[in-house]
Every structure is written in C-alpha cells, then in structure tokens.
Specification:
Blueprint: H1 9-16, H2 36-39, H3 56-67, E1 78-85, E2 94-100, E3 106-111, E4 114-116, H4 132-138, E5 143-145, E6 160-163, H5 167-177, E7 184-187, E8 201-204, E9 207-211, E10 216-219, E11 224-225, E12 230-233, H6 251-254, E13 261-262, E14 266-267, E15 273-275, H7 284-299, H8 308-322, H9 331-334, H10 341-354, H11 367-370, H12 379-386, H13 388-396
Parallel strand pairs: 4-15, 5-12, 6-7, 6-12, 7-8
Antiparallel strand pairs: 1-2, 2-3, 9-10, 10-11, 13-14
Length: about 425
Amino acid sequence: MRPCTHSTAQAIDLVTDHLPRFNTPMYEELETNLPHMLMQFSDTPFPERTQLFPSRETVLHYLEEYAEPVKHLIRLDHMVHGVRPKNGKENCGWEVMSRDFNSGRTVTQSFDAVIAANGHCNWPLLPAIEGLDAWSKSHPESLHHSVSYKNAGRFVDKRVLLVGGGPSGADISHQIAAKCKQPLLRSQTTKSPYHTDAPNIRDLPGLVALAPEERSARFTDGNIEPNIDEVVLCTGYAYSFPFLSALDPGIHAKGIGALPLYQNIFHARFPTLAFIETPEMIVPFPLAESQAAVVARVFARRLPLPGRQDMEEWVAITSSQRGGDDDGGGGRAFHALQPPRDLEYMKRLYAWTCEAEDGACETGEDSSRRGKMPREWNTQACWLRMNAAKMRKAFAAKGARRCEIFSYEELGFSFAER
C-alpha cells in the first residue's frame, strides 16, 4: 500500500464521531445505479411496475421480503467483535465472540466455519490531502463524508466543494448543486461512468491541498478556489474487519491487503473462513448469490478446494495480473472487478458451482439435489450489464419524470440477439 503522506487521523475521528452504532451510508432520494432486472436475485424479480432504477425504500422492502424465510435465523442488535481460530490452528473450527446490545451480554460460541459478509461501505476512506486534518480542527462543522450524508438541506446558499468521482459522488453532487451557492465545485481525479455535466456544477481536477486559514482549496492544475464554506468527501470506503484482529494483527493497517483470498472468497490459510462480496465495481446481489452458491457447496464438502500452496499461488498470480499490491493479499486492485471482469468472474463461479458432486446443471435436474443455483449470464444479461451506466444517465436526464420509467426500452435502449 502507498504510504500516507499527510495525516487524516483527526479528520477520520471527526467524520465518524457521531455515527450511530449501526450506521448506513444510504441517503434520502437514493436510487440504484443498476436497473432492477439486472440487480435482482436469480429467483426473485422485483414487483411489476417497479421504477427502472429503484429507490432505496423499494430495495429495502425487496430485501426484507427475500429474507423472510430465514428471518428466524437472524439476530438483530448483535455485534460480532471477535473471530479467532480454535487453538490458533487451521482446521479446528472457530470461536466467535458477540455482544447482545439489548441484554448487554457477551457470548462466545463455536462454529465449524465462518462467513464474513459485512460489506465494505461503512467506514470512510479519506484521501491523504495536505491540510485536511488542519481543516477538520479549524472548521469541524464544515467537513463531511458521504458515510453520514442524508440530504442537501445544510448546504443551502453555501459555497460547497465536493471531492470524489464515483457513483455516489456523481449523484450527491447533483442533489447539493440544486441547493448550494452556484456553481458547486466538484473535484475528480477520474470521472465515473455515471458522470454527467450540469450548468450548476464546475468540474475541477484533483484536490492537492486545503488551507483552513484562507478557507481555500488548491488543485493539481494550480488553480486556487477561495471562500469554501463546506467540504464534502465522496471518496469511498475502507475495508474494515476489526473482528479479525486475532487472526492477523496487521489487518488494521493493511485492511483487505492482509487477506489472501482464493477466488476472492476463501482465506488461503484458513479455508473455513469465507468472504462474500469483497469485490468492487460489481453487480452486488447476483455476485453475492454466485459466491454464496460456491461457499455452500464447499462447506457441504460437495466442492473440493485446492491445497494451501496452490491457493496462495493463485492469489499471487492474480494480484500481479490485476496490478495489486505486493502485500500477500493483493490490495484493492485485486478486488476491482469493473465490467466485464465481474461478468467473467460470475460465469466462472457458475461453472464452478456446476462441478459440485450430485449437482449437475442440466435443465430438469431435481432442484433439491442440485441446490440453489445462481444466475446463468446469457447474452442479454451481459448486454444489460455493459449498458447500465448509459441507461442510468438517460434515466437521470428525465428529471421528475423518471419515476414513470419502468423499462429500458422507454429510454430508447433495445436488445437485439446477435
């Protein structure tokens, strides 16, 4: 990992200080950046007449309905604070320490295997910008991260600098631009596929430094913008696995880089520890479903894993191919599966799932014997994935009328079988 040239410790403390115990980065007026027929689980479509890019409320209801059959297995208001291998050995099971916030009790339980599916959008990642910590000390009320953003109300008539070029940054910038003193200043080192220009937004290159005394910002082209009232960092999230510190103390410093994950799922040294959805730039629900199908079959001993040496070799080779860090776990580049990489990956997982004992994939097989299968990515589904960003921009351009858009054909897109 690259060394951090400027401290962000104080800024991190500031933007996380008042987060609720179980925070969500979802904000008001959030809509998905994928069409619902692409992001659905394989066996559960969204309801008819669902907005093409659904609201967060629609997605929440969809997930609650999907989870209904297993709700009795879910413990809410619990936090896992420790996961460690029994006796420090590789294949002896796991001790899991958790706390019940209702009763205050802490319990330790034993498990044969553990699946870490805590996501990677809950702990902010801050850029190493000169003056960021000093700004947080001088103007603590004016520094924000998208992790706590809910709406644009506090930015009315303020001169706002937004930093970040990802999907959230693209979306939030338009919300704030409608309220703040115009134009909104938007700093990006790279532009998201979801980026759209707007007359009330001025795009600037990468941010180099903040000067709290002058309330100014300097950019890579040498330009200086004065009189900044508010700074909004839409700079992504850090992988956070604090409950695994007993497994590898270096996880606090290296994050995902400390975890050598075979096929982005299985820990090479502790293969009964699996991770769901560490990849980024992906189609979340179908990818999680594809990984879960593999994990279920491996843990049921229907799919064998290679030996440790072979898995570590796969991690090393794949990390090198993807431009990952030389840290044993591959770093963030190892987990970046921007399309079409995510499609290729899910196709491999589907094929791997089909290799399970008594799990042939031919049509008509007894589904109880075969088990739950993920989506098989046909030509139309792949086409939809590759055009999702263009559809999202066309959808956003509809303004208030977008709630009346239920299909991509209404946006002028058409799939023709080749």
